[in-house]
What does this fold into?
Amino acid sequence: RIKGQVRHSMASSSSVTHYYELYRKSSIGVALTDTLDDMINAGTITPQLAMKVLVQFDKSINEALASKVKTKATFKGHLHTYRFCDNVWTFILENAQFKTDSETIQVDKVKIVACDGRANPTGEL
It folds into this structure.
């Protein structure tokens, strides 16, 4: 898949601004990656162009979420697992409840991945 190629390409280039790749695992990120894979296999685009598209996706989704989303939410639940690795927190909650101003959502299990929005993925502020 092209995901590994993009990580290698970004890691080897010092002039590229790094963005978290977390949203590639979202439904829209998976759909984009699958579509790019199909286009590479069909010969419609090159792997290099697909990598550029993914890098732009990483940048755009991170910037859009930082600047456009204003809704605040609170959550509580039973903390099943937590870990901190490479400046990224991962929490697994059971029987969790999420509240916004307009709704409350109850879930059996949820995984939360939290990164410092001020830092880039290399850990530099």
